[in-house]
User: Fold this.
Amino acid sequence: MKICCIGAGYVGGPTMAMIALKCPDIQVAVVDMNAARIAAWNSDQLPIYEPGLDDVVRQARGRNLHFTTDVAGNIKSADIIFVAVNTPTKTYGVGAGRAADLRYIESVARTIAQHATGTKIIVEKSTIPVKTADTIRSILASNGTGLKAQVLSNPEFLAEGTAVQDLLAPDRVLIGGERTPEGDQAVAALAGVYARWVPRERIITTNLWSSELSKLVANAFLAQRISSINSISALCEATGADVDEVANAIGKDSRIGPKFLKASVGFGGSCFQKDILNLTYLCESFGLPEVAAYWGSVVGINDWQKKRFAARIVKELFNTVADKKIAILGFAFKKDTNDTRETAAINVCRDLLAEHASVCVYDPKVPADEILADTLGKGHTNSRLTVAQDAYAACAGAHAIAIVTEWDEFKKLDYARIYAGMPKPAFLFDGRNILDLAALRKIGFKASGIGKPAE
Ligand code: UDX
Ligand code: ADP
Assistant:
């Protein structure tokens, strides 16, 4: 059997590496039109940072895992073609700002239609609006070479930072297909690949539309939990309750559960906001404005939470941060990834720069040029925004420190040393609640967290 995956990004790369590792008899080709990205996958410096990924890639690469720009050749020879290209939010025309931009999906479908012959299984791995399989099928049907294609939906639920672990032992694998004998056969073939290492009872099969929709709904529910706890964090700050104590108390209820109740500066990442906006757009398209408004509020609270954090920094620094140095620790949207898509750090930095603060960022894995481009826009500069090589340099001489990403190394810093090098009063804002505020206050910091009682 041969597998081809179109798209060598955060989803396609790790997922195919795991399939190749677990199925040594299957040849897996990951193809991408971005030659630089393919070159990086073939080098010692992989294009994405993900704990444990180097090891998986090293074991399978060159054996049965290949990264190449030969899209057409691998489409021709593959039995199963995964589509793992990006589906960003549309920035133009109808649905701008909310609908998914399907141009990469469509272009891949056209490429497949152009080169594929015989019998193929096409697997949607990218997150897409429900009914996208219809579009792919229509394009493939126009190919005229007698291609017999079955389109399946197999959304990826891995989270960045834990991709290898999530792929190794997924809570479930979801496969949606057409409920016809040919569809069932294709579903069984794909299920057979995962069954090499995933217990059968964790492989769920559904109809196409349930599978497509489930991915959006799973992300909407996860994000909703974060916005729910973040809304309560504001109430905690107003009342003296402690949001971690509240989360712990409610999470012990087995109907609620303990996960995804961590109050924060706001969720980021390539999925939550994009998928909820996509969901609200779909709801409106199907004449359900009330449902759209309900889910839209999850994104609304998140935007507010990010603003609230930056506003609090300004307020506590006596309502002016002009020409004050503020250290931002962490820029990635969560720890253990170099991904900055939709990271709250962008909003926090922009809001502080708008107040004429001197913002100095440090992140262990995000390159300096990316931090500057994400915050200011490509090609723009602002002498107030700088990037430091380590946390100590970022904090030296700063009036305030803001923890934006929960990197483990921030827990181990010598805060007494940092405090000594700051003008007084020295402020610390823990946007992730990873530090011991009482200990910081003992050192002398004016320290506050999200949803934590004030000093
Ligand atoms: C998410 C889903 O978890 C995954 O199943 C899906 O396939 C893609 O989207 P990801 O965006 O990689 O994965 O990371 P996730 O761990 O879900 O975190 C998303 C954001 O929420 C991060 O900014 C994270 O810091 C934040 N978060 C998460 C919180 O603020 N509080 C929490 O309790 C959990
Ligand atoms: P994700 O997080 O969903 O994996 P990424 O943006 O990291 O998204 O990766 C998507 C990849 O898909 C990119 O490397 C991009 O170059 C690739 N891609 C997009 N369209 C095509 C196409 N038509 N042919 C080949 N590769 C494509």
Notes: The chain is about 45% helix and 15% strand. Residues 245 and 401 are 24 Å apart (CA to CA).
